[in-house]
Amino acid sequence: MENKPLLERLADKYGAELFVKLRQPVFFINEIMYKPLNQSLTPYQEDWIRLAEKHKLLNILAFRSSGKTQSLLIDYPIFKAFTNKGFKTIIISDSLPQSTEVLKRIRERIFQSELLRTAVPSARASSWSKTEIELKNGSRIMCKPYSDRVRGYHVDLVGLDEAGEYKDMDIYTMAITPTVISKNGSIVLIGTPTSQVDLPHKLMKNKAYVSRVYPATMIYPNTNKTLWELRHPNMSLNDIKRGMDNRIAFTREYLCKPLSRGDELFPYEIIQKAFDYQDAFINKPRPGCKYFIGMDFALSGKAGADYSAYVVYEKNRDGVLKIVRIEHYKGLSSLAQKQRIKELNSIFRPVLMLGDEGTFGKALIEDLRAEHLPIKGFNFQGKRIELLETFRGAFDVNFKDDNPLPFNERKFLICKNRKSVITQTLTEKLVSELLSFAIVFKVPKGKGDMTGRVVYEAQKSHSDIVMASALGYFIARNVRKVSYVVKSSSGYSSLISKTG
Hints:
It is built from 18 helices and 20 strands. The chain is α/β, with parallel strands linked by helices.
């Protein structure tokens, strides 16, 4: 009997009822995808599938490693595509590599099943790509990055992965939601919370959405087991907690409680008041304005190395400071970094540039100063908190008595033109880094609370753009006059003074 095809075995077991059951997603996923692999959906994953089948707008926040991507963005779309002729799905992630990784897992999932493999076109090499697959019945599953380039698509299902990472809410409301309107389709958002104002939290307040939160410690109904125990019966959550050694990260990732306003150094509520939605990043200076540049250097030019970030500030005649350009590079060599800084100096003729004077940065700064660039070094040692607090104050100048000032009275702005892809992308990277900074009270082991100290920790691995922005703001805000030596093409040197 085991040698029979899967459908025949199921028909022997369920008889004529089988063809009704195959239209039920939980049955289909468990019997067709999981059982041959000696696996099964957890009870709460089955609940998610039923919710997705019942509701047009579903918003799920769940703990890390809960299986939300697997069940809702891989298994469920496969079921819909296999059982519905011409069904169209778009999987969206924060970046294209993330979304193509989900599609890769979908492809692998299909080839794991003897029944699903029968839906693969014989000429799939010409019809399948990294961003799209198509079955024999005309159903398509596509993947896209989170951007307004989904305009023009009309699909039956949109699945959004790690929706808490998305920072531009307008892309969701203006570009993504219209894709399902003409086909009366569905939207499924999944993620782990990042802040109280991320997209999933905003949608929780929208009554059109069915929103659910699933922390790892939740006891599943009619059992004495937590969701974590159902998903990972052989792994202790307490061991995970001890291994992370980070209360804020563990609370967010596994208890689904993002940073509170008391924990955040840069709450989104204050960041968004600095956005100038009309202005885009510039490629050349504007008349009557002065420029300053903050720089965080990469340590190495090797593959997989650190990022370097350069942030250009503009100060207009009214004293308004605005971030008008962000550059972010991975793995630039020392020579390439030096060359790009010289180019930025030539373009913007900044009053002053300030760079991270780390071990690598100090030598780079000295070389640039030897070529008479207006650059100084900043030593983070012992001054990191001061620098971040000063930058935090940049956002506060847009408020009076905790109330935001009218836009035309705000003194600190960040370009965020909705029509400029580069502006949107890099500003969102800055925002993402800002939101990851937490205020943490560190207490040395074995010491009382009175011996602790407050530190600012980035919950993400990179904070290059924030630090470059902080350096740029530090000089743009504080510099009044600077003198430095420049050398003309004829070899003569002269002392130049600029007023900031």
